[in-house]
Design brief:
This protein folds into 2 domains: 5-40, no CATH class; 44-179, Nucleoside Triphosphate Pyrophosphohydrolase. It contains 3 helices and 11 strands. The protein has helices at residues 84-96, 153-158, 165-179; strands at residues 5-15, 18-26, 32-40, 44-51, 55-63, 68-72, 75-77, 98-99, 105-111, 120-131, 144-149.
Length: 181
C-alpha cells in the first residue's frame, strides 16, 4: 500500500467558504480513480472557554445545513496571516466578548474528514476567562452567548442538548487535560 499519485486536478467550484476539486488519482497498485472529489476548506479553531468559577462559555446559533439551533464551543476559521492561537483568541473575543490573561492551551489538532476534506480543527482550552467586550459579529452571524457549569456539559451531551461533534470532542479533551493536571 502506498500513496496515490494525482494525474489530473481541476476545480469545479470556488467560493470564499471553500472549493470543490475533482482529482484523477492513480492508486499504488495502478488502479485509476477518475472522479475523486475533494472539498478544500480553511482550517478552523475551537476552544473550551472556562471562567474562574468553572462556567463553560458556549454559543447558540442556527446552522442552516442542520436545520436547527446548536449549542457549541466558540469556533471559527483561520484568517490569513494568523496563527491558530491568535485565531482562537480573536474568535472567542468576537463571538462572546470573553478574554483571558492566560495563554490558550493546545489540546490537539485533528483532520475533520480526510476522506473528502483538506482541513483540520485545532482545539484549545482557555482558562480564567472573563467578559470584557461586546460581541463583534460578522454581518451574517447571530450568536447567543450562554454559560453552564462545566460539570453539567457531559449530562447535556447525554440528553442530546449538545450534538455538535467538535464541541463534544473539545469537551472530552479539556476534561481529560484538567483531570490530569
Amino acid at each position: 500500500m502506498g500513496k496515490w499519485k494525482v494525474l489530473n486536478s481541476e476545480y469545479k467550484y470556488k467560493s470564499p467558504f471553500g472549493n470543490l476539486r475533482k482529482d484523477t488519482c492513480e492508486m499504488s497498485d495502478g488502479t485509476v480513480i477518475e472522479d475523486y472529489y475533494v472539498n478544500e476548506y480553511a482550517d478552523w479553531v475551537n476552544a473550551v472557554v472556562l471562567t474562574v468559577d468553572e462556567q463553560i462559555i458556549l454559543v447558540r446559533q442556527y446552522r442552516h445545513p442542520g436545520q436547527d439551533f446548536y449549542l457549541e464551543v466558540p469556533a471559527g476559521k483561520i484568517e490569513e496571516g494568523e496563527t491558530y492561537e491568535e485565531a482562537i483568541v480573536r474568535e472567542v473575543r468576537e463571538e462572546t466578548g470573553f478574554i483571558s490573561n492566560t495563554k490558550p492551551i493546545l489540546l490537539g489538532e485533528f483532520m475533520v474528514n480526510p476522506a473528502t476534506q483538506t482541513n483540520k480543527v485545532v482545539t484549545f482550552l482557555i482558562k480564567d476567562a472573563y467578559h470584557a467586550y461586546e460581541q463583534q459579529l460578522d454581518e451574517t452571524e447571530r450568536v447567543e452567548v450562554v454559560h453552564y457549569p462545566f460539570e453539567r456539559f457531559e449530562e447535556m451531551i447525554q440528553e442530546k442538548e449538545i450534538t455538535q461533534l467538535f464541541s463534544v470532542t473539545a469537551y472530552y479533551l479539556a476534561k481529560n487535560f484538567l483531570s490530569n493536571s
